């Protein structure tokens, strides 16, 4: 009988160097548990260093709802977070919970998770030698960047509404018989949804009286870019314009040169509703080409999505 190798305790859950994750992916397991005992002291040290250097910048640049969220989650600044503890504080506030995954999750499944008040959460953490930039999400980006915002009811409801948009997209393309047209349509709608998500949930700015504050998680988890987004004269900052956002490509491996400002979380919620309305009217069927590209798993996730539920 074959015996499956079990990683030794404390071998680490470092991004790109995690045997537990590699095994889960090889077995096709997308949803996993968090094997907390596997975190190494180097992992805990990376979390400590990331958290400690962000605290002052959060207090200076982040919107007040995020600061309240950080406090509400009672995150330990010195040790990797246990997702069960995060959910114990989070779920009573908005019904959301962090759900551990082994890596990339196809787009429709991601948005469907939001609709069900579940946030797919990476459990690995970046190597201590690469604290400043990581092209893929890690647990610091997800738990310290995204999840504090999920403690706010208005923001949480906005994510759920975004998940509804993905179902609307799946229903629209399900009614198209021509396969080429179906693929073309879902590609265009996907670009619009991804661009909106990028310029709001990931890299959004918000008015706070006479100041600008950060609510986008990509900024909230970046030591360098959170300050750059508000202070740098090289950044173009404009009031949110839906027609511009859905036609604007972006690049993931550089500081963002263009950011958009919303007035409030109620404003953001209304914008998602407007986005869904535009989708139903066909106004997302021919957005500008360019990034982001839609991968085969993303495409299939929409084409094969269950509709009518």
List the helices and strands and how they pair.
Blueprint: H1 19-26, H2 41-61, H3 64-73, H4 83-94, E1 97-101, H5 107-115, E2 118-122, H6 139-146, H7 153-174, H8 179-202, E3 205-208, E4 211-214, H9 217-220, H10 223-231, E5 236-239, H11 242-245, E6 258-262, H12 265-281, H13 296-303
Parallel strand pairs: 1-2, 3-6, 5-6
Antiparallel strand pairs: 3-4
Helix pairs in contact: 2-10, 5-7, 7-8, 7-12
Order of helices and strands: HHHHEHEHHHEEHHEHEHH
Q: Mean pLDDT, rounded to whole units? A: 93
Q: How many domains make up the 3D coordinates?
A: 1
Instruction: Please give the count of helices.
Output: 13
Portion of residues in helices? 40-55%
Low-confidence stretches: 1-8
Gyration radius (Cα, Å) is 19 Å
CATH superfamily membership, which one?
A: Aromatic amino acid hydroxylase
Number of strands: 6
Categorize the overall geometry.
globular
Task: Give a short account of the largest sheet.
Answer: 4 strands, mixed
Question: What is the CATH class?
Answer: Mainly Alpha
* Strands side by side in the biggest sheet: 4-3-6-5
**Cα separation of the termini:** 43 Å
CATH topology: Phenylalanine Hydroxylase
Percent range for β-strand residues: 5-15%
Structural class: alpha/beta
Going by CATH, the architecture would be Orthogonal Bundle
């Amino acid at each position: 009988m074959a015996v499956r190798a079990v990683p030794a305790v404390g071998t680490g859950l470092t991004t790109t160097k995690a045997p537990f994750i590699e095994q889960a992916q090889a077995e096709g397991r997308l949803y996993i548990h968090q094997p907390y005992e596997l975190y190494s002291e180097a992992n805990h040290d990376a979390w400590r260093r990331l958290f400690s250097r962000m605290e002052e910048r959060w207090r200076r640049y982040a919107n007040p709802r995020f600061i309240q969220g950080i406090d509400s989650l009672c995150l330990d600044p010195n040790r990797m977070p246990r997702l069960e503890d995060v959910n114990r504080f989070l779920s009573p506030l908005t019904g959301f919970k962090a759900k551990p995954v082994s890596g990339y999750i196809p787009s429709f499944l991601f948005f469907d998770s939001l609709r069900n008040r579940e946030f797919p959460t990476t459990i690995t953490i970046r190597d201590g030698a690469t604290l400043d930039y990581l092209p893929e999400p890690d647990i610091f980006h997800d738990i310290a960047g995204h999840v504090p915002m999920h403690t706010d009811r208005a923001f949480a409801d906005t994510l759920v509404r975004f998940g509804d948009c993905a179902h609307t997209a799946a229903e629209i393309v399900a009614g198209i018989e021509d396969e080429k047209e179906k693929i073309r349509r879902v590609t265009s709608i996907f670009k619009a949804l991804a661009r909106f998500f990028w310029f709001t949930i990931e890299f959004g700015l918000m008015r706070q009286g006479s100041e600008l504050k950060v609510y986008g998680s990509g900024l909230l988890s970046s030591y360098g870019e959170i300050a750059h987004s508000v202070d740098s004269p090289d950044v173009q900052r404009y009031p949110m314009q839906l027609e511009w956002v859905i036609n604007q490509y972006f690049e993931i491996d550089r500081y963002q040169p263009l950011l958009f400002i919303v007035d409030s979380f109620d404003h953001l919620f209304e914008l998602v509703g407007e986005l869904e309305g535009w989708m139903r009217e066909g106004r997302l069927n021919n957005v500008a080409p360019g990034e982001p590209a839609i991968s085969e798993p993303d495409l299939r996730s929409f084409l094969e999505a269950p509709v009518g539920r």
